[in-house]
Structures are given as structure tokens and as C-alpha cells.
Write a structure and sequence with these properties.
The structure is a homodimer of 574-residue chains. With 574 residues, chain A is an alpha/beta fold. Chain A has helices at 3-10, 71-89, 141-153, 171-181, 183-188, 195-204, 211-216, 228-234, 241-246, 262-268, 286-289, 344-353, 357-366, 370-379, 419-443, 461-471, 483-495, 502-509, 521-542, 548-562, 564-570; strands spanning 15-21, 25-32, 38-45, 96-103, 108-111, 191-194, 209-210, 250-251, 256-259, 275-277, 297-302, 306-312, 323-326, 334-340, 389-391, 408-413, 450-454, 475-478, 512-517. In chain A, the strands form five sheets. A seven-stranded mixed sheet of chain A has the order 13-14-12-11-17-18-19. In chain A, strands 3-2-1-4-10-9 form a six-stranded mixed sheet. In chain A, α16 (461-471) links the parallel β17 (450-454) and β18. The first copy, chain A, is globular, with a radius of gyration of 24 Å. The first copy, chain A, starts with a helix and ends with a helix. At the A-B interface, α12, α13, β16, α15 and α19 of A face α12, α13, β16, α15 and α19 of B. β16 of chain A pairs antiparallel with β16 of chain B, so a sheet runs across the interface.
């Protein structure tokens, strides 16, 4: 330990800063170490946001499915949000004894050997492939398809640990796309590094890799990346991808990556030399903030989509999970991840595109939001009264079917169906989707003992009551509104040695409200029946009973390819 | 022939009046005999409209699914609409050589032996069962269910001629309901008579029965009603229902029922003694107006629902048809009827309850209707571009599944789905439903050689183009905007002897525009693929592959029975 940290860490009022790097902004949070009190916070919006239409530096249009970011925006969060949060907390910065971060993932960039993003090298600002590719950059789907096909063909052991499919969002698909589309940038990239790890390099001056992204996004299993032979079979030029650009010692979560450099101290206003925790991911850093890291405690981070993270004592293959990684959430346990591709996104789609004016007018008249009005009217119905059942696949299905070409369905419509009926059915469909995931874990020998909700949808009583009724479980809810940033602060406290491990830090600094929503037995009985219907339709449409959703998509794609003008017209309305 | 008619019928400018009694109003049309020219028209709204909430005479609330009318409203149409139409035509009333009518069906009433509706007898104005029951009175469903079950149990030969199910709307279900719920009124009803026949009684002073309603709504087949034994098995008191209250000579369509009485001449301002055609039904009177009465010419009367009527040379059992009746459309041919329970109703439901404000605003800005805007935007898409397929069962399915407990479905939704996409998918789903009916007729040996469209939806180019593309057929369209009233005038001309038969009268006075909409081959190819998907889902959800729609309805009904207050809340919004 160096002097700075020693001083702070001995102070009973010592604080830690957690920084959560999101899709459009970064948030800093100052947390008191001894009790997790959140003393101050600040947000900084990324100047360039998401570049999905054009490259800001040149105005060059970007192809469909691209999503880039500017790495300077990340540094700006350190420069602005961190000092602002400390000011908001009203503490002396010297009380801060460490900093931790979490990032969206897989957000990944090409860098030189000294950590410079290639887009910041002279002459490369105009090269799209030189920029960080945001998690939702999906243009590497053809590459992902080839990786998956080859993995199954070669019976690679790792593929089952990812539900049988790696995603176009992850390091290998994005890396292979880079190689094939801009070999020069690929060549010049000494590193292919998660933004989660790159930001730590900026804070410490030292390159590190964290167990979470290496495992979930980097296909690192049992200490190894996919083999040179496998990579060469994809493309001979790709053979050295892992060895040359990824390979690096991997540190456990909560480890100290290094100390805050003089430069980073200047950016943040924090003491030079304080502990910096290794990188982490927004979803995976949340369970410690919810005091929910014991095996069987599933944390569902519910927002536009839902990410389910849970620790298990042993390795099991759970069909359709996103991944299982040794120490992927907490060192010493197997971290399981599953997901639902569309949740809040679906409710927003419905509110934006399928609700008639009378509801908008009434919400305005009553001074409430449209979602609140729909929730109130939907909540006034008894379960089952609308006669509907929906499949929540409007954005595809991640777990447990791992099929992004599925689509949504609503069954049971009549001339008496009204907007709150459909709204309720859509909310229920996402709850059924969660129950499928929970059941699949249980069937695979990884029982879920407690369901803890975090994320933006924790504010919606109606949604959570439906989830309690559908899953027939009491729901716990994370106490903090800033789960990821608090989780990052917890990891900083561990990295600094304030707590011996994440378990101790989580117990002291994290919190949840237990059993906030209790299942209503009458509703739960109705939902048992509707869940049986959901499962039947789920398997019929999702497991090959009727591949109509794939065929409809095929027809659509063929039609649009041969009629691009019409497609544009049809897609012209927001 | 009496004097009045002889005079007019010799005049080359002779005219005939057709009167179409609809659900909310009656329309009279003055038509020149020699060429079908429509010279004048007028509408009279029923003062009591549809009594489905309370009985006007007493304010007594009516139970769910009831729908009554006041017979005086029908007489008022004769008093007001007929003279107004003649005035509108600007002709001397003495030029009118006959009158014909058509009615909604099965609209049926109890009457005394002299034709007085029981509700007009002293002391009976407060008895709901003494009033005409409108076609859409559905409270006799339990009785219909028992009739169907018994018919199948006893293997009654007639049941297959009604697609295996008679409707709660028809004479026997409504009659049995009357018996069981108000035996005194049943007892006092000397006649149980279609309003179609009752109005002729008012015009002529003579009781008649027409072949159309007797066959389609009265289960009269091969000259016989269901047997006394069958009726007694339903209820011993019902044994004489057909013999005592229905039985009467049945006249062919276009026959002369009698001559206009002095009283009816005073009501209408028409010459006393002119010919009055036997009663008829709005749908079945339409093919002559469209010059489409040859075997194989299917007339689809498209409005809130669709009725398909077509002549055939021989008797065949077509699965799921509404009925096949000897002379049911034109004497000497077998009249086939099929139907789709929801068509325009579905489009209206969508426009009213699922379209966001931006489209309402844009339609207002452009000074067009919402349907027109949605149609324009939907029409701008190539077929298949929305990636959706829908089942058009929001109001159940009449043909060919004969299952009113089915419900609607939409498959293929994504976050990119917009209102015009769903609108188009719903329009297409009704076209697929029509194609199923056409295919079923063909499979049963009754090929459809021409598809002729009549009804309110003839005004919607987009809808009809979709139907042409989906059925891969040129569509003909009835020339008149007043198909039923014109058809009634045609039958009047036959009854008066101006034409020897309906064929000749239809050829001279009826008309259609041929091949107005031609199938687009590229769209038709796409629709062949989507139709295959529709059939697959149709059979899966409609033929027992997955009875989820029935079960959802069952859950809904149980829930609502046990939570009536919540049900009311949920149903409170219009």
C-alpha cells in the first residue's frame, strides 16, 4: 500500500468511488465504506453518444447494425462525473480510498501496445473499424454464424457453456469482422481489449484483464481461449487472434489492478496512488450491490432487456444460458448469466406504437405517464380476464432458445380487446419468459432460491407484482437506485483492502429489501394455467413445431432486398 | 293481374320499388324496369334502433346478448322512405308497378293469427319476448347448443347442410328460448315469423313464407321442417313448434306474394293492387343486382362481416358453410351461403383501439380518414414486407370452422412493427379467410368461377387489391351502391311479370364491373407462401392442434364470473 491509500483506508469515514459506464453516459457514485451510504453522485453524457448512423469525425455513413463510440467520451466521464460526484457528496477528496468501474459489454476496441485507441492514432480518425464497437454493434452476425457452425462441427467443449451459441456482440465475432473488413487496422491492433479493461489501463497505466469479460465475452474457459487451430479454420490470418491480441494475465473480480496514476488523479481530483479495482461489467457488478451473491440468489436486472446473473457452487450446463464463467461474478463461484432480449423495450414499443389517443389524452389530463395509466388500468383486471397470451419475442429470444430470429405473437384477440389488456399480456409474457429461465436452471440442477430485482423496472409496482404472481415467489428488490455504480464502489473497497473479499464488502455496503412483492395465490393459480399455455406456444413456435417466424422473416428479407425503395418507405415512420 | 298493375306494366317507363330493411334503418330505391336505372332513393332511421340495453316501452334492462326491435319502425319505413324515394325520383307514383323487399335475417317475431306482433297486443308492450328478436340476438346460445348436440346424436340428415351447426341466431334457437323463458308468450304466438315475411303480410294482407329464410333460418330441407320427434326430445312443449307456428306454403323467390292493400297503398303512396314480391334477405337478394346468379359466381358481400352467396347446380356438402338451400337464392338452383364473422369490424377495431396519435393527427392534417391513411401506408409496402401473419378470428370463425369461440392472433411482431403493418396483416388475414372458403367449395366439387364483391368495402381499393392478389383472381365489383334494394326491385319486376324470371330481370337490371382488380403476380407469389402459413396456423389453432383459444376463453369466463366488479372495471372503457 502506498501512503495515500494507507491514510484514507484507516479513516472510519473512508469512501470509495464507483463509476458505471453506460450506453449513453457515465455515472459516478461516492459511497461510504463502512455502511454503503451513498453520499453523492453525478452523470456525464457522452458527447458522441452512440454512432450508429455516421462517423462523427468524417460524416461518413455507417452500414446497418453498426454501433461505435468515441473513447474520449469515456475519459470525459472521469474528468467530469467523478469530481462532480465528490463535490455533490461534500467530502474531502482525500477521504476517497479507491475507485472501481463497470462497463457495458462486450464493448471492445483495437489499441496499440501502450493502450492508445487506434482511432486516436494519426491518420486513423476516419476509419470506422478503428473505433470501439459498442455492445449492440451487430454487424458481425455472419462471423458469429460461422464461429458457431464451426464450433459445433468441431465439437468444441466451450460452446455448451454459452447455451450453444456465441453472440455477434462478443469479442471473436467483432474481431473477425475487423480482420475481414479492414485487415490493416486488424494488423495494427496490438490489443483487442474490452472497454472495461481499457478504462482501467487509463486509470492505472497498467494493462489488466478481468475474469468476467474474458469469460463471458472472450470465450475464455478453463484458463484457455479457443485454440489456434480453431481460429485458423475460420481464417488462417485469424489464427493468432487470441494469443496476440487477447492473451494476458486475468485477474479475479475485486482484485487491485493498480494505483491511480498522477494523470488520472488530475482528471478525477482523487488522490494519486489509491487502489483501482480490475474492470467489471454493469450486470455482473450488481449482485454485490444487492447483497445477493450466495449460490441460488438470482438477480434480474430489468430494463429495456433483462439480464439474469446468479452464482452457483458447481459447473452445470444450463440450456440457453448466455454463459457460465468461473469467478464471472464473484471469485470462487461459478457465475451464470441468462437473458431476455426484450422487456422494457417491448412495453415502450407498445406504448409508442399501439395505444390510441384517448389513453394519451387521459394520461395528460391526469398528469401521469402513459405507462402509469396503462399499468393502473391493467392492474385493475383480475389475472386471466383479458383472455390473451403473448410471446415476448419482439426482439428475439436469448434464453433459453437463443434465437434472435424469433418474433412476438399475441393470441386471443377479440373485438373487445383494449390497450390495457394487451399491455398486461405483454408484461405477463416477459414474466413467463423469466419463469422459463428459472425453471430451466432448476431442471439443470441449479435451483433458484431467491429472485432479486434490480434495474429501471424496479419502479413499476404493477410489473413486479405480475412477476411475483407468475413466478409464485416473493420478490426482493435492490435497495440502491444505482446498483452498478454501488457494485463498482464495493469492488473498489475490496481492491483497497477495506474488506477482505466481495462477500464481506457486499454484506456491509450492499442491500436489498426482502419479499417486497408477495404472490397473490388466486392470481398465481390462474398464471399456472396460462404459463402452461405459454410453454406450449413457446415450444411450438420456438423449438421447430412451426418455424413460421423464421419463414416470415425470410419472406420479409427477400421482399425487402428486391424492393429497397418500398422498404425505405415502409420503414420511414419512426 | 289487376287494373293498376296492367296499366303500369305496359308503360315502357315502368318502375319498381325495392326496400332494404337493415339493422338501423330502411332504404327505398326506385328503379326503372327496362334498364335498372336508379331514379331515386331515401332512408328512414328506425326510431328505436336496436334495443340491446333496455326495453324502450318500460326502461327495463335487457340481459346480455339480447337485441330487440320495434315492428312499428318497419312500418314507418314504408310510410316515410318509400314516398320520399318516389319524390326523389321525380316520377308519377302511378309508374310504379310493384314493390319488393329484403330484410335482415334471422329477425323473427311472435304474431297473432292476423299478423299482429304480440308486443302490440294490449298488455304485452312490457314483455321483452313479445318483440322481434333481431338477427344479432345471441341469448339463445344454450338452446342452439342443445339443438346441435341432439341433431348430431340423432344423426339428423339436415345438420350437414348447415356446416354441422345451426346458429343461435336462427328461428329454432330463438323459438326455444321464447318457450323456456316466457311460455305464456310462446303459447299466445300463433305464428313465429321472419320479419322478412311479416312485412309482406303488412303490404299484402296475406301471410306467405319465402324459400330463402325458410331454408337458411328455418331448417326447412326437402320440404320438411325438423320432425315432431326431434322437437319433442328438446322439450315436450316444443313438439308442435314447426307444425303450429312455422308451417305454411313456401313460395319461390320472385313469386308474387299478393297485391298492395289499400292501407299499404296509403302508407307508401304507391298504387293499390300492384304486385308485391315474396320476402327476401339482404345478402341473398344481392346476386341478381350484381348480375351474378350463374352457378360458380360467388358474391361476397363485404361489410362489418362478409356473407358469401353462390348458386350451384347440384347439392353438395361443403364443410363449414352456413347453409345450402334449394332455391335459396334463385329458384331452380341450390343456393350456398358461407360467412366470415369479422371483416370490416376487425379493421374498425384496429383503427379505434390500436393506432397511436401520430396517425390520427396526420389523417386530420391531410383531411382524410384514418382508414384511408392506414390503407395508403399499408399499400405502399410490398406484400410480405411486414413479416406478420394474422388469424382473422377476432369475432370468431363462421366458415369453415364454425367456431365462435376462436379468437384472433398476430404472429411475427418485432420492435420495428408499426400500425400500417398490422393493419395490412389484418386485411390480408380476412383475404386468406376468403381463400379458405373458396378452396373448400372447390374441394367439395362446387368450384368458384368468378368472385364478385358487393357491400360497403367495395369502396376500399387497397382491401380489394389485396383480395385479388391473395385469391389470385380478377375481382368483379357490383355496379350499384344499393345492391340489396336494387335486388328487391328486381324481384318486384319478376313478381309483376315485367320479366319472366329472375335471370332475365337480373340480366337487364343488375350489373357488375368485371375484372376491376387484377392480381399482381409478384404479390400473388408472396401470398401463396403466406397463405400456406395461414393454413398451417388455421388448422393448428382451429382444428384442435392447440385449443388454447378455447382454454383462454374458459379462463377468462371463470375469472370474470368470480370477479364481476373487476370485470366491469375492465370492460368500462368503450
Amino acid at each position: 500500500m502506498d501512503d495515500h491509500q494507507a491514510v484514507s483506508a484507516n479513516n472510519p469515514d473512508a469512501c470509495f468511488v464507483g463509476v458505471d459506464f453506460g450506453t449513453l453516459s457515465g455515472r459516478a457514485l461516492v459511497v461510504r465504506a463502512r455502511d454503503g451510504a451513498e453520499l453523492g453522485t453525478a452523470v456525464h453524457e457522452y458527447a458522441h453518444g452512440v454512432m450508429d448512423a455516421e462517423l462523427a469525425a468524417t460524416g461518413e455513413p455507417l452500414p446497418p447494425d453498426w454501433a461505435l463510440q468515441d473513447p474520449e467520451d469515456y475519459r470525459d466521464v472521469l474528468r467530469h462525473a467523478v469530481p462532480a460526484a465528490v463535490a455533490d457528496a461534500g467530502i474531502d477528496p482525500s477521504l476517497v480510498a479507491g475507485i472501481g468501474t463497470d462497463f457495458t459489454a462486450c464493448t471492445v476496441l483495437p489499441a496499440s501496445a501502450d493502450g492508445t485507441p487506434l482511432c486516436q492514432l494519426p491518420g486513423l480518425a476516419g476509419r470506422p473499424h478503428a473505433y470501439p464497437k459498442l455492445w449492440k454493434h451487430h454487424a458481425g452476425q455472419p462471423q458469429a454464424d460461422r464461429i458457431n457452425a464451426l464450433a459445433h462441427e468441431r465439437r468444441e467443449a466451450w460452446i455448451v457453456r454459452y447455451g450453444g451459441k456465441i453472440s455477434s456482440e462478443w469479442e471473436f465475432a467483432k474481431g473477425l469482422q475487423l480482420l475481414e473488413e479492414d485487415p490493416e487496422i486488424y494488423q495494427r491492433a496490438d490489443r483487442w481489449i474490452e472497454a472495461a479493461d481499457w478504462i482501467i489501463w487509463q486509470l492505472t497505466g497498467t494493462e489488466t484483464r478481468n475474469a468476467c469479460t474474458a469469460g463471458y465475452k472472450g470465450i475464455r474457459q478453463d484458463g484457455r481461449y479457443p485454440s489456434r487451430e480453431f481460429l485458423a479454420a475460420l481464417d488462417p490470418r485469424f489464427a493468432g487472434f487470441a494469443a496476440d491480441k487477447l492473451e494476458h494475465a486475468v485477474l479475479p473480480l475485486g482484485a487491485r489492478a493498480g494505483s491511480l496514476t498522477e494523470q488520472a488523479a488530475a482528471w478525477t481530483g482523487l488522490p494519486e496512488g489509491i487502489a483501482v479495482a480490475v474492470g467489471n461489467v454493469d450486470a455482473h457488478v450488481t449482485p454485490p450491490a444487492a447483497a445477493a451473491i450466495e449460490p441460488g440468489q438470482m438477480v434480474a436486472i430489468m430494463g429495456t432487456s433483462t439480464c439474469h446473473v446468479m452464482n452457483g457452487e458447481r459447473l452445470a450446463v444450463v440450456p440457453g444460458m448466455c454463459g457460465v464463467v468461473d469467478g464471472g461474478i464473484v471469485a470462487g463461484l461459478w457465475g451464470y448469466e441468462a437473458g431476455q432480449s426484450g422487456v422494457g423495450d417491448i412495453f415502450a414499443w407498445f406504448a409508442d406504437h399501439a395505444v390510441p389517443p384517448e389513453y394519451h389524452d387521459e394520461a395528460r389530463r391526469r398528469g401521469i405517464g402513459l405507462h402509469e395509466l396503462l399499468s393502473q388500468e391493467a392492474a385493475a383486471q383480475p389475472a386471466g380476464a383479458h383472455g390473451l397470451i403473448a410471446l415476448d419475442w419482439l426482439n428475439g429470444n436469448r434464453s433459453v432458445l437463443v434465437d434472435h430470429h424469433l418474433s412476438g405473437a399475441i393470441i386471443g384477440l377479440t373485438l373487445a380487446t383494449r390497450a390495457p389488456d394487451i399491455y398486461r399480456a405483454l408484461v405477463e409474457s416477459t414474466a413467463f419468459g423469466t419463469r422459463v429461465i428459472i425453471d430451466t436452471f432448476a431442471d439443470s440442477g441449479i435451483p433458484v432460491t431467491e429472485l432479486v430485482i434490480a434495474g429501471g423496472l424496479t419502479k413499476n409496482d404493477f410489473v413486479l407484482q405480475v412477476y411475483a404472481d407468475v413466478t409464485r415467489r416473493p420478490l426482493s428488490v435492490i435497495a440502491s437506485d444505482q446498483g452498478p455504480a454501488l457494485g463498482s464502489a464495493i469492488h473498489a473497497a475490496v481492491a483497497a483492502g477495506w474488506y477482505p473479499d466481495v462477500h464481506a464488502a457486499s454484506a456491509a455496503m450492499g442491500a436489498k429489501h426482502q419479499a417486497v412483492y408477495l404472490p397473490d395465490p388466486a392470481s398465481a393459480d390462474v398464471y399456472d394455467r396460462l404459463y402452461a399455455e405459454y410453454r406450449l406456444l413457446h415450444d411450438y413456435f420456438g423449438r421447430g413445431g412451426n418455424a413460421v417466424m423464421h419463414r416470415l422473416r425470410g419472406v420479409r428479407d427477400r421482399v425487402l432486398r428486391s424492393a429497397p425503395a418500398a422498404a425505405e418507405r415502409s420503414g420511414g415512420r419512426a
